[in-house]
Design a protein that fits this description.
heterodimer, A: globular
Chain lengths: ~140, ~150
């Protein structure tokens, strides 16, 4: 399978994703924090972003998986774990605190580099550091 | 509660594009479009030959933002800015990085892709981060007024 086709596919998917985040206005942390603010100025828009993404993806996914293998790769690489462990709960809660504090989840944070200012570089830099440290610790924990 | 700035149509359309992008990545490369996982493999790679497509995908995320502005849809983008102080951005960014790596996913990987596959793990993760984000905003905005 050609390497350049794979590169093109990744570029197309990333670009469409970033464009979608922009159209949805998820790149605006004021909207994100208002979405999370049920007790104050609530902006329900983000529920529609999630619903739109989830519905479209949920319609296509079973048909895609039924094909047996992806177009440009040997097999589907899906998460195999099914148990509900402490990690998924603790990680989810920590991520939510960070999301609520800053108003950025990873996708919009990266897409916002298209109009980066010092605030966006700050939150993205902190995300990179947090990600690196967590992955380093997780990789060396059992070794 | 007051409802503000409600934009259901762009939200639904943008969401649908995100869903299409995720479906396309699965169809073409057999990969889950979880941004924290894809970016994590660039920031701290597990294997060398698995970095390329991740980096390209991340570049695409930024490119998508550029295209949105180039074709004139970005009117108002210059008004978009962070709404909290730098220390809050640092703390928030760190926790987003740490939390998504411990919990193996974020809004996209668990919320859009995992739920589409009806993964119970992703459901638990999504409920956890939604709940803790809502509580966090309640505390910072209404209890201590720190945001």
């Amino acid at each position: 399978m050609s390497r350049s086709k794979q590169t093109l596919a990744a570029l197309f998917a990333g670009t469409l994703f970033g464009f979608g985040l922009s159209v949805a206005q998820m790149i605006d942390p004021a909207k994100v924090i208002n979405f999370l603010d049920f007790a104050g100025t609530w902006d329900p828009s983000l529920a529609f972003v999630m619903a739109g993404g989830l519905i479209v993806n949920a319609i296509f996914t079973p048909f895609i998986l039924k094909r047996g293998k992806p177009l440009l790769a040997e097999y589907f690489r899906l998460p195999t774990k099914t148990e509900i462990d402490k990690r998924i709960v603790i990680g989810g809660v920590l991520f939510g605190i960070g999301w609520g504090l800053a108003g950025y989840c990873p996708g919009p944070m990266i897409t916002s580099l298209s109009f980066a200012d010092s605030d966006i570089l700050t939150v993205l830099g902190a995300f990179v550091v947090g990600t690196f440290v967590a992955r380093w610790v997780l990789a060396h924990r059992s070794a | 509660m007051t409802i503000v700035n409600f934009t259901p149509l762009p939200a639904l359309l943008g969401g649908a594009l995100i869903g299409l992008a995720a479906a396309f990545l699965l169809y073409a490369k057999g990969r889950v479009a979880g941004i924290s996982g894809i970016a994590g493999g660039v920031i701290y790679p597990e294997s060398k030959d698995d970095i390329g497509w991740r980096l390209i995908f991340v570049v695409g995320l930024v490119l998508g933002g550029f295209i949105y502005q180039l074709i004139g849809l970005g009117a108002g983008v210059d008004h978009i800015q962070a709404v909290v102080s730098k220390p809050m951005l640092i703390l928030g960014g760190l926790l987003v990085g740490i939390g998504t790596q411990i919990g193996t996913g974020c809004t996209s990987g668990h919320g859009i892709c995992g739920l589409a596959r009806r993964s119970p793990r992703s459901l638990v993760a999504t409920l956890c981060f939604m709940a803790s984000a809502i509580v966090t905003v309640y505390v910072t905005r209404h209890l201590i007024g720190a945001s």
